[in-house]
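[09:14] KT: can someone run the structure on this one? pasting the chain below
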Amino acid sequence: MTTISPLAKLCAAGILGVVLLLSLDPVSAVVALVFELSLLPWAGVPARRLLRILTPLLIAAPFAGLSGLLYGRDEGDVVLVVGPWNISKGEVALAVTITLRILAVALPAVVLFATTDPTDLADGLAQLWKFPARFVIGALAAIRMLGLMRQDWQMLRLARRARGVADGGGPIAALGRLGNQAMALLTIAVRRGSLLATAMEARAFDAPIQRTWARVATFTPRDAWFVVGAAGIATIAVMMAVMTGAWNFVIS
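[09:31] RB: done, structure tokens below
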């Protein structure tokens, strides 16, 4: 998976996402998920890292489904009464459908971009899709700064703990300390961003001349077949939903 062009991954994730968002039915989501899960062993990501990457998605998807369970339209018999909520079969089906659809849409995007080098993506966007070099390089620099921000957050936390200002006071005080630490991180980020912008300007990153690139971005037939495969998965998912009568076009 790491040898696939980042632009091919972007196209594949976009095709699957757009097609799966056209309908609100469980069949197409399940079919797409089956294909996606069957391809995970070939993603080129160790199982432990893959689990760590997918953990936020696995937590967020059920919570999104919970909103449909509690606030969806009442349809069918009531199966559960929880306080002021009368949960019907229709709301349960909606919650399951939302959860499955979020997983089916987000899973390929998360996995594909976890195997993508931001520099390769920037090279492809600027060289093949002709995005403005200034925009691409600036976005790449911002992405590279995210790792430093995480390190800064850890160092701030350790420094405050060493000074004895990171413990005690209850949850209200903890929220106050969190806000102070976030403000300190923001100050550091602004200063570093200003220095980075000055350094990039001094090195003529904004020069009005034809830019050269250290690595040449390519889009091979293998990348094209990867995109075709994603389109095939989306087509099969839609066909299965239509054949079973579950297709529910959201735009009407």
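[09:33] KT: thanks! The chain has eight helices and two strands.
[09:34] RB: yep, looked fine to me
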